[in-house]
Structures are given as structure tokens and as C-alpha cells.
Amino acid sequence: MEKKDLKKFTRLFIGASRNAHKSELLNPEMLDFKKDPETHLFIASTDSILRVQNFALGYRIFVLLKDFQWNERQGKLIWSFSARFEEVEPETKREARMW
Predict the structure, then answer these.
(1) Pairing of strands 76-87, 50-54
(2) What is the pTM of this model?
């Protein structure tokens, strides 16, 4: 897996907001990436559940990624997924207030 592909996927999937910057994909090694030069598609897939930890809001997300296609030429993102959210136990009182 190329780092630039993972960075692109993370930016498109998690986003670029302040809260997104405090989120982390916990198992990126589960992702596969393909690029089609003819259609200009960047495709991400996995056979596993992706785990995302949001350190800004205090939750973990379990994501079943069904489809993820980014057409760089058209600037068009197509994605489909199911997600389950789980609260994370805060480690400190300050963290609990923040969340």
C-alpha cells in the first residue's frame, strides 16, 4: 500500500475538519487500492471491518465499506457503507467534559 493512496482515502473518507484531524483509521492495512488510468477512478476496498477512532468526540466507528470510488477528473465521490458507533470510555474527567 502506498502512503499517498492511504492519505487520499483518509482525506476523502474521514474528511479535513478539525474533528477529522483528531480521528484515526486504526487498521489501514486492511484496505486495498486500485487506480484505473482510463476511467480516472481511485477505488478502495476491503473484506474487513474498518475501525476509526474519533479522539475529538469520544467514539469508535466500525465501518463496513461496500463501495468507494473517487473520479479525480470529475471530482465525483461514490461511496456506500454501514457503520456502528461505540462510545469510548474517557480516561480523565477533562476528557469526559470535552466529549
Answers:
(1) unpaired
(2) 0.86
